[in-house]
Amino acid sequence: MKEVHWLDVVSWNKDGLVPVIAQEGQSGKVLMLAWMNREALQQTAFTGEAIYWSRSRNCLWRKGETSGNVQKVKSLRLDCDNDTVLLEVEQMGGVACHTGRHHCFFQVLQDDDWVTVEPVQKNPEEMYGI
Amino acid sequence: MKEVHWLDVVSWNKDGLVPVIAQEGQSGKVLMLAWMNREALQQTAFTGEAIYWSRSRNCLWRKGETSGNVQKVKSLRLDCDNDTVLLEVEQMGGVACHTGRHHCFFQVLQDDDWVTVEPVQKNPEEMYGI
C-alpha cells in the first residue's frame, strides 16, 4: 500500500492554502491566525519556526523576520477535516501582533462595539524600524 | 460622526464569511475552527450560543443542534485585521468534534505522519443517531 505523504493529507483550499492557528504553549493564548501553502508548512516543520504565506504580499513570510518575534514550533496538529492546522508555539519577544500587543485578539465585543482591551507592549515603530 | 455597526467592522471574505476559532475557556483548548456569515455572527452574539455557517450544507448550523454539544459563548474577540473571530466557549457535553473527541485537533505530526493521539469519548453513532 502506497503511503500518503503528510503534506498530501492536508486539505488545501482552492488557493492552495490552509488556515493556521498559533497558540502559545505556556499561556494557552491564541496568538493569531494566518495561512500557509504547502511550502510554508513544509518549511515550518523542517525548521521548527513558523513560516506563513502572506496573502497581501504573495510571498513566504518567516514570522519575526523583521521584528525578531520568531515563533518556535513545539507541535503541529491537524483537525478532523484535515483543513486547519494548529501550532503550539513559543513566542519569542512575547509579542505576536504587528500592533505590538501580546496577541492579535485584543478587541472584545462589549455592548455592540469592539473594544480594545489589551495594551501595546512594544512600539511597532521600534519593531519594524519605520 | 456616524458610528459603524459592529458587524460592518468585520472584514468578511469574498464569500461573505469569516473564520472563527472556538477556544474552551476553562481548559484553554482550541476546540475547532469553523466559519460564520453575518447572520451567524449576529445570532451567536444575540443568543449566546455558537451558530456557524456550514460550507458543506450551505446553511446556518447551530452547534450541537443534533448532538446536544452546544457551545455557550462567554466572549467574542476580533483580531487586529478584523478578519478572524475568537470565541471563548463552554463546551456542553465535553465533546466538540463530530468524531466524538474533546476537540478537533487530535492528529499530531510525528516522524512525517499525522498520528491520532486522543481517544473517542462519545460514540458518534449515539451522538447523531445514525
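The mean pLDDT of chain B is 95.
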